[in-house]
Amino acid sequence: MQKYPFTINTTILNLTAEISELVGKMNVNSKLNQSPQLRRANRIKTIYSSLAIEQNTLTFEQVTAVISGKRVLAPPKDITEVQNAYDIYDRLEELNPYSTDDLLKAHGIMVKGLRDDAGEFRNKPVGVVDSNGNVIHFGTLPQYVPQLVGELLDWVKNEETNLLIKSCVFHYEFELIHPFSDGNGRVGRLWHTLLLSKWNPLFAWLPVESIIHDRQSEYYQAINKSNADADSTAFIEFMLSAIKEALIEVNSVPAESSKRKNDREDVIIDYLKNNSDISNSDVRELLSVSSATANRILKELADKGVLIRFRKGKTWAYRLR
């Protein structure tokens, strides 16, 4: 059986244990068990985040409107991407995570109407770039793609390592192969969620993609480091930390009352009366919330027109309008 290089170190063992504990709490306490509305909201968050990583221009509100069947003034390609992603995530339970045919089916739906080769492995060489246009690596030569994808799926199915870790290895190795001409990132994240859902069904509704979106530069850095090391350990560590953060978000953040939400907004506005701008890390410290919650609060204020988002070095910051 094919071997994929990685090391199960102390960091990975600790993260795996912490995730298992959080999953236990999620099974008992999470509103995901009782709330179809929360599951739908998380699904929309997942789709918005995964597409935003790939430069889709629709806002969260526009994504929500498209999924709700409303008309949206936006590029047709971006609207189609949302519709396709919602379609395939809605069929998650039907997919066999170890089937090449189902993987091709998922790709066919994900890029339907966008690519002539939807549902087919690529037949040309391709280079992989990050969000800044830097070449990360060159994908596998096309003639080897079907075999390597099949071997990867067989490994995930038969390897005795914890599926939590195997799903991260799959995600990294899948992007390394880069089997499609387009849609590799979207399909890779979808398949990671699918594998996690086989470990625990509630993962089908956990928006891990939103954490990846919030920490996008770290995501690419982890891929680059694993490429340089010829070993997926760094990527596994990053993905487990993202999964942990998503679980903390679900377990620790109750539904917000209007008063609590307004109080948080007032704290941010008061801070900006004495400071030129505010960042995600500032909000985390001010409100004692996770990175994902801080990002959501800032985004809501920006969508309302209270704040303006701008680039500050390598990160995003916000100032009063």
List the helices and strands and how they pair.
Layout: H1 10-29, H2 36-53, H3 60-67, H4 76-90, H5 100-110, E1 127-129, E2 135-138, H6 145-158, H7 163-177, H8 184-199, H9 208-214, H10 216-229, H11 233-252, H12 258-274, E3 278-279, H13 280-287, H14 291-303, E4 307-312, E5 315-320
Antiparallel strand pairs: 1-2, 3-5, 4-5
What is the H/E order? HHHHHEEHHHHHHHEHHEE
Number of domain modules: 2
* Oligomer designation: single chain
Question: What would you call the structural class?
Answer: mainly alpha
Alpha-carbon distance between the two ends: 58 Å
Name of the top-level CATH class of the largest domain:
Mainly Alpha
Sum this structure up briefly.
The chain has 321 residues and is mainly alpha-helical. The chain has helices at residues 10-29, 36-53, 60-67, 76-90, 100-110, 145-158, 163-177, 184-199, 208-214, 216-229, 233-252, 258-274, 280-287, 291-303, and strands at residues 127-129, 135-138, 278-279, 307-312, 315-320.
Labels describing this entry:
5 strands, globular, 2 domains, 321 residues, Arc Repressor Mutant, subunit A, single chain, two-stranded antiparallel sheet, Fic-like fold, mainly alpha, three-stranded antiparallel sheet
Describe the overall structure:
The chain has 321 residues and is mainly alpha-helical. It folds into two domains: 243 residues, Fic-like fold (Orthogonal Bundle), CATH 1.10.3290.10; 63 residues, Winged helix-like DNA-binding domain superfamily/Winged helix DNA-binding domain (Arc Repressor Mutant, subunit A, Orthogonal Bundle). A hairpin with a 5-residue loop joins strand 1 and strand 2. Helix 2 packs across helix 3 and helix 7 packs antiparallel against helix 8. The radius of gyration is 20 Å and the shape is globular. The chain starts with 9 loop residues before the first helix and ends with a strand. The mean pLDDT is 89.
